[in-house]
Every structure is written in structure tokens, then in C-alpha cells.
Write a sequence for this structure.
């Protein structure tokens, strides 16, 4: 699937990240440190009393002083206290991506009696964790032997980043277990032109004191670091974890307003040539706009042309291999992209900007952060936190934002990562900050319909149609667009089996997985033995077919982190169930509606068709209001939020009763 966050144009990256660096290498200490008998004798953790395992120390050497590679050398020692600790820490994954290499892996177990079990080289494996088209997230994996409560495990490895540097590297101080002592040894580069010093920017922690060490290193330590814990629907990892950004800078205390003004002007001047209008672009713009009258209509037609007619070479669904991509040449102008009818994400956006200008609108590049990774703060003067570039177009007195490289989103929507963000609208003379809008729930709908028949033994069978729009549709398309038809069917079967274990699917049709305009859709026949429970002359039926088997959204009673939803969404379900012969509704009250003003609403209507032979169930639900309400909540709001979704789950599990030989408990409905 393609990355939803669109990268900045290469020429823009050159401006924003001009601080290049050479590579660095560090062999590090190849000997194990002595084990203190007191560590083997430890009976309980020192940092968190209830921890199942605890890192006695974690040392990282970040060497930026070599000639070719930037190297992170890690060494960690962990004490195991419980069986859960043995299970969670005994198997290790060291992930890496792209051209990063994991080298010199070594590990061992020190048993409570002091005996040592070394990891054998042949027991270290390389596996793919996640595949995204031709790109892979891989990991070195191994399982330590002899691990038991009371034992110590330790391992070390080198993470080599070719042709890279310590500039804008994140140093993380938290792991999934508590750490008694974490120490970073940083060796800065000495050959970066125009840089005065290395800088450190802490997040959710105080700036630690750096001490000068031998061989050009500086050390910083932190003690008694609590565990980093993941929770469902939480902010991005680095909005929660304790970490520090390492970067090189000329001016340590540059004023953020002046800094971003300079960036906005520089990028605005630089990008003028990348959205250049020539005769071919003018002619094409006039052809596309046609009889459109308003600026909004013109821009929507230009947008749809760029996202539907220009092949996006940045998308993995384009079917290009790494070799194919290496042979591609960047378009030198919008006219080139138009001529070739294909281009990278940035080239497509530049073409849209040129077409917009050719049709009489003012267009600019807008820079913004990616809230899937961090919450952008323009009070920090560092372009490292600018991840995305979209197009801002002046309509009347307001700026509107477009990103036609997002193939699966209509005009008026950005990728969810780019919505509700401070965007720097660049300009050679006067850049401005503008907030990107948040799409309302009605823009991202999961609409589900089922026409089913209930048999006397409780089996439910019939036809199902499900479609997704907006952000929900874009996600489904990105997830499925580079899969084979067989893989898409397997994805559907697995998702249904997880909530309805007896479900049998047939006649599956999956439509519009690559279509930029039509909703992603599933059609299938389903048969679910035992869906309704038969007791004597009664059948107990859950009419919310699409919510049957869905667990409550939140399972824990307490919460540490904020609650974060990516975007507002809506659900609309219509389920018609033909009743078995001789049965009628005995108890068919509908669950009561509820609402959290401006944030959420739930409503269900239940009725029968004329003649009373079919039950009709209609459910609507939305969550997340406009203006940013309803997607980010403080941890203190967790009890209320959990209560809302628990109540939703309870009402979705509402059961009605059918009785053999009874008169219907409801009148007819035309629903």
C-alpha cells in the first residue's frame, strides 16, 4: 500500500535539510561487562514495583565522527522477575528499514546460578515484519535460551546508517520495560560546513547534563526511567515517549517567527519555477475547466484531472519495482508532467498548482507537519518537523488546500495526517500561517446494508453490501490496492471470521480497490449457523448484524495517555431480516438513542415491512465533531469516553425476541 503522507519535493528537501553530513562508524566495546552478583541476587525491580522485567542498564553509542556511516551501538542488560517477563523479553526483534543494516548481534543468558548460555550465530534470523510494495520493514530476530525468572539476559548490536549523520536523529530514552539507567554517548561530526555546534532538543523530559568523555564523545544519562506503554487509540509514539532530537545548527536561539518567515520566503521563491505556466498548461487548463463558472468548480475539475488522469509514480500500486523507480527521471516542469501523463506525488501537485494559476487562481506550496508522527509546533525553529507539502489556492479571501497526489480523496479533503494542522503558505514576500480544516464525519462513512433470511434453527443467510468513502475509503484502498484478488478476499474472510467464527462467505465481489472516484465496496453472500439462539418456541436475535461479535473499543479501566482518533467518521447500517415462517416479533423494542453534543450521536430504529414478515433495523452513528472536537481527549476524560463506547457496544448487542405463533409486537413500516 502507498504511504498516505506525501513526501516533500526533492528540491524542497534540499533547501529544508541542507545540513548534510558524512558517515560514521564505531566498533564499540566487544567484551561483555562483568555481572555484579548483586544484580543476579535481585528479587524485585527498582523502578516499577510491579514490573515483570527491568533493564539494569541500556547504553547507546551514537558515532557521527567517522567517514562513511552513522552508527548506533546498543548494549542492554535486563533482569527477569516473572514468567511474563521471560515470555516478553526472551524473544528479541531488532527492526530496520531501507538501507539500514543490523550488524554484530551478540546475546547471552546468565542463569541465577551464574552459568552462561551464549546465543549461537545460526540462531539469529532475518525476517520481514511488514511489506509495503517493494519496501520492507525487516528485523533481526533471535530467542535466548535458558531464560527463567531470576536470570539476566543481555544483548548488543550495531545499527549502521549508510551515508547519513546524527543530524535530526531521535534518541529514545524509554523502552517497553523500566530502565534503571540509560546512557547515550554521542560523538558529533567535525566536518560539517557552516555548522556551529550540535544541539539537543528534549521532549517530555528535561535536558540531561552532557559530560565530556574520551575519544570525542559526550555522555548524557537518565535514571529510573518508567516503561513506555502502548495503549489503543493513543497519540503518535513520540508524543508520548521520552526522547531527544539531536541536530546541528548555526544559531542556537533563533526566533521561531523569524525562522519560519525565512523558510516561507525561501521555499516560496524556490518553488515558483516548479509551478511554471506555459502555453501547453494554459491550453489544457482551459480545456479542463470548460464551462465551470465558479472558482470552486474550476479547481475541482483541475483537481480531479490531476488525481485521475495523471499516473502517480510514487504510489506502490503503480506497479513499479525499485529498479524501475531508479530509472525514472524527475519531471523538470508541469509541462513535462502533462506531456508524459505521469509523475511523482510532488510533480502531480506542481502540475495542479500550475493549472490553477493558468485558470486565474493564486496558488502556493504549503508546508505542514504529519500528525501521524508528531503534533507540529511552530514554536520550534527546526524544519525537521515539516514533513508534508500540499497546494494552497486563494479563493476569495481564504486559502483552500488541495493534494491531488492523494488519489483516493475528493477535492476538499487532505490526507488525515495533514488535516487540522498549522500550514505555512509560502510566498517570496509574505508567507502566512493557516490552519487546515478537519473533514466532518459525513465525509468518511462506512455504509452497510444486508438483506438476510433467518431460519428456524437460528441460521442467518443472505446478501451483504458494504462501502467506504472519504478517509475510511482511502484507507481500505491503500490497504488493498496492491494485493491480488485472492489476497483481498482473504482479508475480508479473516475480518469477518474474527467476529463471526461460523460465518461462511461465497460469491465475493470486491470493487473499486484502485478506482480514484468510486467507493471501495464489498459484496458477498453470507451464511452464519447459530446466529440466533433457539429456546423452545423463541428465537433470540441480535439485529445489529454488522456489530455482532465486536468487542468494546476500550477494555482497561484506567488510562495513562491521551485518547486520539485519526479522523471523524460515520456509520450507516440497514439490515432487513426475513423472519422464519410461523414466527413473529414478541419483544422488539429499539435501544434508546444517545448523543454527546457536537461530538457523537447514536440512533436505532426498528420496524417491520408491510405484512410483518421482515424485520427492518436502521442504525446511525457518528463520532468526532468539526473544528477539531472529538479526535483528541485528555487522559482525564477516559472514564467518560470509555463509558460512551461501552454503552454503544451494549446497545449494539441489543437482543429482540421472536415467538412461534405470536402476533407481531410492531406495526408495519416502510423503512
Amino acid at each position: 500500500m502507498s504511504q498516505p503522507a506525501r513526501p516533500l519535493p526533492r528540491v524542497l528537501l534540499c533547501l529544508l535539510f541542507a545540513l548534510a553530513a558524512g558517515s560514521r562508524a564505531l566498533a564499540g566495546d566487544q567484551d561483555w561487562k562483568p555481572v555484579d552478583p548483586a544484580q543476579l541476587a535481585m528479587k524485585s525491580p527498582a523502578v516499577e514495583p510491579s514490573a515483570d522485567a527491568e533493564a539494569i542498564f541500556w547504553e547507546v553509542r551514537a558515532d557521527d565522527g567517522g567517514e562513511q556511516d552513522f552508527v548506533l551501538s546498543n548494549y542492554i542488560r535486563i533482569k527477569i522477575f516473572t514468567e511474563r517477563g521471560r515470555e516478553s523479553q526472551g524473544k528479541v526483534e531488532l527492526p530496520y528499514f531501507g538501507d539500514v543494516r543490523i550488524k554484530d548481534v551478540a546475546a547471552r543468558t546468565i542463569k541465577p546460578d551464574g552459568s552462561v548460555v551464549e546465543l549461537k550465530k545460526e540462531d539469529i534470523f532475518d525476517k520481514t515484519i511488514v511489506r509495503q510494495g517493494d519496501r520492507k520493514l525487516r528485523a533481526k530476530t533471535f530467542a535466548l535460551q535458558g531464560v527463567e525468572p531470576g536470570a539476566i539476559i543481555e544483548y548488543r548490536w550495531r545499527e549502521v546508517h549508510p551515508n547519513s549523520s546524527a543530524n535530526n536523529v531521535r534518541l529514545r530514552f524509554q523502552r517497553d520495560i523500566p530502565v534503571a539507567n540509560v546512557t547515550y554517548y554521542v560523538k558529533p561530526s567535525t566536518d560539517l560546513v557552516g555548522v556551529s555546534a550540535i544541539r539537543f532538543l528534549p521532549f517530555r523530559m528535561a535536558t540531561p547534563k552532557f559530560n565530556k568523555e574520551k575519544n570525542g564523545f559526550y555522555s548524557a544519562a537518565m535514571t529510573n526511567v518508567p516503561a513506555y506503554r502502548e495503549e489503543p487509540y493513543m497519540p503518535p509514539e513520540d508524543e508520548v515517549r521520552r526522547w531527544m532530537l539531536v541536530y546541528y545548527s548555526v544559531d542556537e536561539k533563533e526566533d521561531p517567527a523569524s525562522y519560519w518567515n525565512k523558510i516561507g520566503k525561501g521555499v516560496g521563491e524556490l518553488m515558483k519555477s516548479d509551478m511554471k505556466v506555459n502555453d501547453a498548461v494554459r491550453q489544457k487548463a482551459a480545456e479542463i475547466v470548460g464551462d465551470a463558472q465558479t472558482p470552486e468548480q474550476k479547481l475541482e475539475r483541475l483537481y480531479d484531472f490531476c488525481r485521475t488522469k495523471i499516473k502517480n509514480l510514487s504510489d506502490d500500486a503503480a506497479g513499479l519495482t525499485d529498479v524501475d523507480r531508479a530509472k525514472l527521471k524527475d519531471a523538470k516542469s508541469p509541462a513535462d508532467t502533462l506531456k508524459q501523463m505521469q509523475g511523482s506525488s510532488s510533480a502531480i501537485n506542481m502540475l495542479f498548482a500550475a493549472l490553477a494559476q493558468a485558470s486565474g487562481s493564486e496558488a502556493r506550496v504549503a508546508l505542514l507537519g504529519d500528525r501521524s508522527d508528531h503534533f507540529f509546533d511552530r514554536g520550534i525553529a527546526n524544519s525537521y518537523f515539516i514533513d508534508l507539502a500540499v497546494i494552497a489556492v486563494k479563493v476569495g479571501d481564504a486559502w483552500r488546500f488541495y493534494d491531488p497526489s492523494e488519489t483516493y480523496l475528493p477535492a476538499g479533503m487532505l490526507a488525515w495526517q495533514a488535516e487540522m494542522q498549522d500550514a505555512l503558505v509560502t510566498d517570496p514576500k509574505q508567507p502566512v500561517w493557516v490552519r487546515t480544516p478537519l473533514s466532518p464525519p459525513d465525509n468518511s462513512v462506512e455504509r452497510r446494508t444486508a438483506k438476510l433470511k433467518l431460519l428456524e434453527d437460528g441460521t442467518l443467510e443472505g446478501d451483504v453490501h458494504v462501502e467506504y468513502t472519504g478517509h475510511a475509503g482511502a484507507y481500505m484502498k491503500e490497504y488493498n490496492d496492491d494485493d491480488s484478488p485472492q489476497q483481498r478476499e482473504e482479508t475480508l474472510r479473516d475480518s469477518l471470521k474474527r467476529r463471526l467464527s461460523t460465518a461462511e462467505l461465497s460469491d465475493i465481489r470486491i470493487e473499486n480497490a484502485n478506482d480514484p472516484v468510486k467507493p471501495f465496496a464489498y459484496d458477498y453472500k453470507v451464511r452464519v449457523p447459530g446466529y440466533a439462539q433457539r429456546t423452545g418456541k423463541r428465537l433470540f436475535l441480535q439485529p445489529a448484524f454488522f456489530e455482532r461479535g465486536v468487542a468494546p473499543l476500550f477494555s482497561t479501566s484506567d488510562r495513562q495517555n491521551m485518547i486520539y482518533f485519526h479522523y471523524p467518521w460515520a456509520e450507516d447500517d440497514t439490515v432487513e431480516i426475513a423472519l422464519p415462517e410461523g414466527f413473529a416479533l414478541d419483544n422488539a423494542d429499539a435501544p434508546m438513542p444517545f448523543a454527546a453534543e457536537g461530538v457523537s450521536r447514536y440512533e436505532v430504529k426498528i420496524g417491520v415491512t408491510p405484512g410483518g414478515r421482515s424485520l427492518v433495523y436502521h442504525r446511525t452513528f457518528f463520532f468526532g465533531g468539526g473544528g477539531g472536537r472529538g479526535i483528541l481527549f485528555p487522559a482525564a476524560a477516559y472514564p467518560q469516553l470509555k463509558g460512551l463506547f461501552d454503552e454503544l457496544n451494549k446497545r449494539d448487542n441489543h437482543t429482540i425476541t421472536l415467538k412461534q405463533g405470536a402476533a407481531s409486537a410492531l406495526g408495519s413500516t416502510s423503512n
Q: What stands out?
A: DSSP finds twelve helices and 35 strands in the chain.
